[in-house]
Design goal:
Two copies of one chain form a homodimer. The first copy, chain A, is about 10% helix and about 25% strand. Chain A has an eight-stranded antiparallel barrel with strand order 2-3-13-11-12-5-4-14. In chain A, β2 and β3 form a beta hairpin. The two termini of chain A are about 35 Å apart. About 5% of the residues of chain A have low confidence. At the A-B interface, α1 and β5 of A face α1 and β5 of B.
Chain lengths: ~300, ~300
């Protein structure tokens, strides 16, 4: 009884595959685990934003690692984020908002901390990028509600139409808080998605990256009881001790991650398996999946 | 800066509407708040399953209220759940599994507790119900990945094809853990969705209700570090002190809720607003929404 519900990944390992009995069809996780090393792409340390929170109540360290998006996406905001990290601007700020089934948001709760010099103001047009035809990998994904097409581009979930491509708000994606239009946010106020993909935010707000490790340190925080899930008592805020680009850390302290090439055969089989679960637990494959149910596999690399 | 990101609901209340300036277009929350009392339907106490957890570390009570689905859905499992609650079977069991962006699961971690007499074994065919044409309310929702049609039926998110209709796995929906097919689960082992809608579970596992209050007591629990998010140390499990149908509680202790009639004009306007955000924060309406981004409004009724 213990392994009820989506037990296939664990249980199938224990199912004997005898001559009489064909091996079970692999789960998405098993396909990923079996992918050759050549299908994995290292994430540059320069693209990892490392956020350390104050230790939890039991004294346990809490590190959240965010992968910043590659060009052509959100370059202006990501440039600002690099400047903010270099200025150690987030050190001493806090997690200020936790809204259930929506977002966790962090930044300067006092709203008084001066921003570093040289941040740029990014126009709303930068929420989208020019589409280069053929550059995207189609996925067995519809979500026609939100865009004509969905897929992945160089490892990132995107939507596109005839002219433009834009990143989408899946679980764990990191975006830039802003005020009312035409404000687009500087990048100093960030959030990550901790619930069902709020796709209505696509093209309305900048996405700059995704949490690749430690999202449980954000998603399991107590929900804020104020409007929009803001913490009402400042003692509820979670202190941010340090935010650095990984290259600014001691080499021994630099996290290392790689993602499964979304151009690889392994990813194609993984995506098909996500859309058509045939591993032992399932009795009826869905026949498709929405883009946010085909998360790009990312794994930690042991030093 | 404090109200960055989806600030409209809160901020628009503070935006002066002068003669020169038209009132802002209402947000989905404002439409719901303005709905007449006649658009709200009381949820029968007999359909509310009340789960009390042990108080949290600060001694704060933790109550989770689940609305059971109406006929024709999942009748066999729901009948079993009523028997289990009447037998006080869950008292002394625990929350045993918390898997990030997936589910929280509870039941008898010892796997040894005898089930009450009279539980029925439900066939897999009961994952679907016969479709009564015209009974569903269409929503501006696609998710073509998962079904030809999506909408709501008597207040519940469903998908349907020419022959059948079935409930869908949105955030907060409650389902029945099971083992490998042909097992369909008794209803003693339950889970709720705490992440992006795992729609691949639709038609593969029984849905029996939804959390209408207190999901934060489940979604903010520490994630389990074992396989599938199970807690590895039994001390991590969260004790369940009591699970009752609300009618079994003292009247003074019975929670009362109502939901917005999904046949009402208010709901139609709410659903349209969810699919086409035009309130002040938004610059580009999505033009649609997936079924799980149009949650049916449920509110507590003060005694």
């Amino acid at each position: 009884m213990k392994h009820l519900l989506l037990a296939a990944a664990a249980a199938s390992l224990t199912l004997p595959a005898t001559a009489q009995e064909p091996a079970p069809i692999p789960s998405p996780g098993e396909i990923t685990a079996a992918a050759p090393a050549s299908d994995w792409i290292a994430i540059a340390a320069a693209d990892l934003l490392v956020m350390d929170l104050a230790p939890d109540a039991k004294g346990k360290a809490r590190r959240v690692v965010i992968q910043l998006m590659p060009a052509p996406f959100s370059l202006g905001w990501i440039g600002n984020i690099r400047k903010l990290a270099a200025a150690q601007w987030w050190d001493g700020t806090s997690i200020n908002r936790v809204q259930d089934n929506y977002v966790v948001q962090w930044g300067d709760a006092t709203e008084k901390k001066a921003l570093p010099e040289g941040l740029v103001t990014v126009p709303e047009s930068a929420y989208l990028s020019e589409r280069k035809r053929g550059a995207t990998t189609w996925l067995p994904s519809a979500n026609g509600s939100y865009a004509p097409h969905h897929g992945v581009l160089a490892g990132w979930p995107v939507a596109w139409n005839a002219d433009a491509v834009w990143p989408v708000h899946c679980y764990g994606m990191v975006g830039v808080g802003r005020n009312f239009s035409p404000d687009t946010g500087s990048g100093a106020e960030l959030y990550t998605v901790i619930g069902h993909a709020p796709r209505h935010l696509d093209q309305n707000i900048a996405l700059v990256g995704r949490v690749v490790s430690g999202i449980e340190h954000l998603s399991s925080l107590p929900r804020g009881t104020g409007a929009l899930g803001f913490y009402e008592d400042e003692k509820e805020r979670v202190p941010i001790t340090s935010v650095r680009i990984a290259t600014e850390l001691d080499v021994s302290d630099q996290p290392r991650f790689e993602y499964l090439s979304t151009e690889s055969d392994s990813f194609a089989r993984y995506a098909d398996a996500r859309a058509n679960r045939r591993d032992p637990f399932f009795i009826k494959p869905a026949g498709g999946a929405d883009i946010c149910n085909i998360p790009v596999p990312v794994r930690s690399v042991e030093k």
